[in-house]
Structures are given as C-alpha cells and as structure tokens.
Design brief:
Blueprint (H helix, E strand, L loop, with lengths): L1 H15 L4 H28 L9 H9 L4 E11 L5 E9 L1 H4 L2 H13 L5 E7 L7 H9 L2
Helix pairs in contact: 1-2
Length: about 140
C-alpha cells in the first residue's frame, strides 16, 4: 500500500508540480509505520512476558472451570501465548473425591471447557480438597465451609 501511495504521489508531483506533497507523504507514511510498530511491539512484549492474551477473559475461564460438576476450587492459574497463536494454560484444580476416581475423564472435561476459550494446550494438576498445595490453598481452606 505504501508503494502505491508513493507511485501516485510521484505522478502528482511530476504532472502538477505539487512539491509539498513529498514531505506530507513522508510524515504520513512515517506515522503509519510507527503506529503499526508500536502496536506489534506491545503484542510481542506481552508474549515475551507471558501475559494473558488480550482475547482471553481470565475470570470467564475460572468461572467455567469451577462450574464443572465436582470442581471445588482452582488456583495457580497461568495463561499465556507461545507465539501469538497457540494459547497455553496451567492450573491446580481442586476436585471432590468422586472426580479423583476417574482423573482422565475429569481432565478431559476441563480441556473441553478450555477449547471454548481457544486454549489449545493445557497442563492440569488435580488435587483433593484435603491435599492442596500453595499459598492460595491455605487461604481457600480457611474459607471453605
């Protein structure tokens, strides 16, 4: 698109002798490039810092997972993008003893829920309510009924 603009600008300058168009086009093209570089740089920094991708709502992911039958809590959640297209999820999910009897089915149900949020890869650690690791669990244990 920039080359087409330069070609059109060159034709206008050549035939109509409107020389002011050259610096105006230079400023416009520079502003366009700087804007797009800034936008791309923000996305690249978010990927490098393993930030939550902007198209994923972390609270909605938490709500959908805790809405699964048998899930009593979730903590140590991390969602990031590998390269801007593949989203990754890791978490500790607290489930009742019934769900721990069939952990593969429980993980599969959680993975199906994650695909609704465009998360393709996940590592899920299932924990019982009686054994939960991490600082967040100590807080959760003091709040549970």
């Amino acid at each position: 698109m920039g080359w087409v603009g330069i070609l059109v600008g060159g034709v206008i300058i050549y035939f109509w002798k409107f020389y002011l168009l050259d610096p105006l086009m230079t400023i416009g093209l520079t502003a366009f490039i700087v804007y797009n570089v800034t936008k791309s740089l923000k996305e690249a920094i978010n990927i490098l810092l393993q930030g939550v991708p902007k198209h994923i709502n972390l609270e909605a992911v938490k709500q959908d997972i805790t809405a699964i039958k048998g899930v009593t809590g979730i903590h140590d959640i991390h969602i990031w993008s590998l390269e801007g297209e593949t989203d990754v999820f890791t978490a500790h999910v607290i489930v009742d003893d019934e769900r721990l009897k069939n952990p593969d089915q429980t993980r599969q149900t959680i993975k199906e829920t994650l695909t609704k949020h465009h998360i393709e890869h996940s590592t899920i650690e299932l924990e019982s309510p009686d054994f939960c690791s991490g600082i967040e669990c100590k807080t959760w244990h003091t709040k549970k009924p």
